[in-house]
Protein 1
Amino acid sequence: MDALGHVNNGKYVDYLQDARVDFLFRTAADLGVDTLETGLLVARHEVQYRAPLRFRAEPVRIELWISEIRGAQFTVDYEILDVEPARTTYVEARTKLVPFDFKANRLRRITPEEREILSRLVGR
């Protein structure tokens, strides 16, 4: 929380990471692909702050989806928001991820199996 009682801007990236990890790992594993769990690096974050979020006990909603898939990278888009009593968007964000082979210590291409799973998650 910052001096004005708002969620600190750096904390939003933690929220995005928690949602992305849960979304990708759980969803991919449920669909039979486990390589996304151990081999992704963040290449870029973009965060646009739309409204201040005051610190509170109630959870905030995070919607996320895959917006782009390329040969060796994909993009996750997000919104941090409330839907009740009226829709309020606090943050719009985007993360570019690259598959990484930690044993070989190099970037790798998205496999056909990963592409199939990611394709199911495109859009909202």
Note: The domain at 9-121 is CATH 3.10.129.10 (Thiol Ester Dehydrase; Chain A).
Protein 2
Amino acid sequence: MKRILIIVGSVYGSTMQVANYISRKLDKYGYVSEVTESSSLENVKKSNLLLIMTATTGQGDIPQNITPFVDEIKESQEDLNDINYAIISFGDSGYGPTFCNSGRIIQSILENRNGNCVIPPFEIDTVEYLDPEEPINIWCENYIDKL
């Protein structure tokens, strides 16, 4: 069974709720998933897949609760070519160029460390989808079998 570590960057808790929702869906598909707001690079290595689900805050910033984890990756000199990952970002398209920027920042950091992105980053516009479970269901239909 594949183990999926879901690390959640959340400001007000809605991203955490969606992460728990996707975790239940993944479990139904036979994956073993763990949802957390903080982790370490060492813990990520014990998983088959790192799924980062993050909101965007401020002027396109990463939520504070996952900043230490992102900093650990950024400061690491390790080659992360054995880390498979996927990113789901949440944002408000009204912010223009900073829409879903936290996911884009994390994507860039993981790419610079040679992480292996297994599916394209998925961006959810919270203006377009008042119920974030709707786009998560779309994500699952399109990508869950590719994890």
Note: The chain has a mean pLDDT of 93.
